[in-house]
Amino acid sequence: MIRQQKSTERRAVAIGSNPERNRAHNRRVVLEVIRVHGHLGRTEIARHAHLTPQAVANIVDELIGEGMLIELGRLRSGRGQPPIQFAFNPDGPLTAGVEVAADHMVTVLLDLAGGLRAEAITPLERADPGHVPQRIAEEIATLRARLDSAVPRLLGVGVVMPGPFEIEGMSSVGPATLPGWTGIDAAPLIAEATGEAVALDNDATAAAVGERLYGAGRQIGSFCYLYFGVGLGLGVIQDGRPLRGAFGNAGEIGHVVLAPRNRAVSYGPEGALERVASVFALRERLAAAGLKAGSIDALHALFASRNAVVTAWIEEAADHLAPAVAMLENIFDPETVIFGGGLPDAVLDAVIAALEPLPVSVATRRNRALPRVMRGQTGQLTAALGAAALPLLDTVSPHLSVAPPPSRPMRLVQNTFHNGKAPC
After folding, report:
1. Could you tell me which of 95, 120, 122 has the C-alpha nearest to residue 107?
2. Residue 143 covered by a domain
3. How many whole angstroms from its chain centre is CA 289?
4. Would residue 2 count as lying in a domain?
C-alpha cells in the first residue's frame, strides 16, 4: 500500500538549534513558525521551534525592534495570565517580485506574511539589457509610492525571466525568449538599477512556487505546473520543493515536440509544443485573422463572443497538451497537473475540458483525491508572486539549499522552497 502523506505533515516547520552560532537559522525558524500559524505566544513558538523560551524571547524582541513582528495583545486560553501574541508586522519590510516577459512586465510587492500590497501589469516595448533594469527600478518605485503608510524597506527583489538560460543553439529559439541577453549576467545589472539585492530564477519554476505558496498548490506536496507565459514552461514541485535541474533549465517543455492526438506531427522548431499551445501561438493565429488581443481582457472578450479562431486554437492546443499531461504523469507521478499563467480563467477551463479523454497514464486510477488536471488560482500574477517569494524565503524559511551551478551568466544562487522537510 502506498502511504498517503497528510497535509498536516506538509505544514510541519523546521526545528531550531540552540547554540548562539546558529542564531540566523533560529531567526528563520521563529519567523516560519509564525508564518505557518499566523500568531503565537512565546511559549508556543518555543514548542513548535524546539528552542528554549529564553532563546525565543531574545529573538522575538530583536525582530520587534527591527519592525518585522508586532504584539497583538493577549489571547485568553484558560486559567492564568493570557500569553502575548506575536505576528508579522503588516507595515514591516516588503519584498518585490518582477516577471519580465517578452512583451510585458508584472510587478508585485509582498509583505512578510505573503500579503499582496501592490501590483502592476505593464506593456514592455523593449526587453533588452539596456532597457529592462531601469524599467524594473521605475516600476518598483511607482508601486512603493502607492502605499498609504510610510514606505517600508525592501528585503530584496526577485526577478524571473523565461529560459532556457545560456544553452547554445537554443538561446534565441522560441517566441518567449528575451533578445540581447546572451552572455549577460542579469542580476548585477538589476541590482545596480534598483539598489537592492536581487535573486534570479526561471519564470515557470517561480510560477510553480507562487502557486504552491499562494494558490491551488498550498495543500499539494507534489504537482506539475504548466505555465502559459508568452511561451509555455513547466514548473515541478516534488515533496514541496521546486525541481530546477543542474543549470536552472528543468521544465523547458515548450521546446519539446509531441505527437498530437488528432493531427499530423511536425518536427523541428516549428513543431515545438509552445508553437501551438501558448499565448504567443493563440495571438499569432488571431493576427493572421486580422484580430489583435494584447491583453487577458481582450482574449476573454474574444472567447466570450465564441470567436472561431479562439475555439479552433483551444481544440488544437488540447490535442497537443493531452499527450503532454500523460507524459508528465508518467515521468513525475504528481498528485495533479495545474494549468495557469497568462490566459483568462475561462480559456484555461475550456482547454482543460477539451483534454478529455486524457490518455491512460500512471495517474489513471480510481478514488483520486484531485482531478488529473486543474486550473491554478493566482492568475497572471503567479510568476511575479513566486519571484517575490525568493527574497522572502531567504528571510523566513530555514529550508534553503544553496547549491550553485557552474558559473553561468543570467544565473544566481538558487533558493530551494521547501516546506517541512530536511534538505536532501
Report:
1. 120
2. yes
3. 34
4. no
Tens digit of each residue's pLDDT (9 = 90 or more) over 379-423: 889 999 999 988 876 666 554 333 333 333 333 333 333 333 333
Residue 225's identity, in one-letter code, is Y
Is the peptide bond between 357 and the residue preceding it cis, with omega within 30 degrees of 0? Answer: yes
Q: Which of 280, 283, 301 shows the shortest CA–CA distance to 291?
A: 283
Does residue 100 lie in a domain region? Answer: yes
Residue with cell 543549470: 247
1 falls within a domain: no
Crossing angle of helices 279-288/308-332, nearest 10°? Answer: 160
If asked whether residues 268 and 413 sit together in one domain, one would say yes
Burial class (CB in 10 A: 0-12, 13-18, 19+), 16: buried
Do 138 and 73 belong together in one domain? no
pTM recorded for the entire structure: 0.77
* Overall number of domains in the chain: 2
Are 51 and 103 found together in one domain? no
Contacts of 1 (CB under 8 A, 6+ apart): none
Same domain, 49 and 175: no
Q: Are residues 164 and 308 in the same domain?
A: yes
Tell me how far apart the alpha carbons of residues 320 and 276 are, in angstroms, rounded to a whole number: 8
Beta-carbon contacts of residue 236 (< 8 Å; ≥ 6 apart) = 208, 223, 224, 225, 242, 243, 250, 251, 332, 334
Q: Which residues of 112-125 are buried (b: 16+ CB within 10 A; e: fewer)?
A: bebebbbbbbeebe
For the segment 101-146, what is each residue's pLDDT rounded down to a tens digit?
A: 888 899 999 988 788 999 999 999 888 899 999 999 999 999 999 9
Domain CATH number, residue 359? 3.30.420.40
State the first-to-last Cα distance of the chain, in angstroms, to the nearest integer.
24
d(CA 272, CA 266): 8
DSSP state at residue 270: G
Range of the domain at 20: 7-88
